[in-house]
Write a structure and sequence with these properties.
This protein is mainly alpha-helical. It has one domain. It is built from 4 helices and no strands. It starts with a helix and ends in a 9-residue tail after the last helix.
Length: 102
Amino acid sequence: MNIFEFLQKFKLDFWTLWGIAAQGFFFLRLFIQWFRSEQAKKTVVPLSFWWLGLIGAAMLFVYAFARNDIVFLITAILQVIIYSRNLIIACNQQPDKIIPEN
């Protein structure tokens, strides 16, 4: 079985692409966090980490709702709550950095 035969088994529609994009936000937040930590030579959690996590979680919530997937829906709701709370805490600690860093 080659890669094309394997990929044909999956349904590729708008919601699949939406879900892939949502996962992309989660990957991007981890990549940025790793990159900033490497730059600083210590563990750093930039504000963009929480913003990207919140965007990814919100997108996964929409995806789970559209797909009628209770497992993803519950997970996405919890993620939205957790990322929102951490974003509020971070913004309260750094009110001048509410907008993510460049």
